[in-house]
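Section 3.1: Structural characterization of target chains.
Under the original work plan, the team committed to producing a structural model for every single-chain target entering the pipeline before any wet-lab resources were allocated. The record below documents one such target. The sequence was received from the expression subgroup and is listed exactly as submitted; it comprises 202 residues.
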Amino acid sequence: MVAGVPLIAEEAGIFAECIRALTGDSDGRGESRSGSQPRGRSALDIVAKTWQAQTQQQQSRKARENMINGALQNVKVLMLAGADTTTAATCYTLRLPSSNPRVLGEVRAEHTAVSGQDTGATEDIIPKSPENLNALPYTLAVIKKYLRICPFALTVRQGSEGFNIFSADGMQFPLKHLHVQTGVWNIHLDPTYWPRVEEFLP
């Protein structure tokens, strides 16, 4: 057996139990114990609400199973892929300015002008006055520049019949039954479009 299969199976079971607990469906038959709607805005809350809405319309066991399986796949993406991309974004956003003292100094000066010397106050200032985020244009430029130099998210599209791509010498490649991934790194680091392409210049 493949080493990762037991872990994946265990995770699927845990996700299923979470969804059933949130929906009040203890045995997978779509029968709610409490009849109450789950509250909150977490990924599992949204999945549970969607599950309840669809099972009210589709009472067959097969429809319920399909809904739970689809929910499991989406929750896995949110929890696993979401955690990885957020971590990568945070690390590189901190790394690039830290290796450039001038940029880091300007970012700090901008934040001090908005929230003052007390860095802990930012946690209270932003929720109360979110418009203050508009007073951080240089910080926004730093984040955008980082996303150009270190794009961590890829764009994948499912190919369809009748759509083709062509090589430089004109060879045609049909996209039916294929997934197409955009070469984001190639585009973002192409000196044709970006002067001084590898420099961190917000």
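The CA atoms of residues 101 and 168 lie 42 Å apart.
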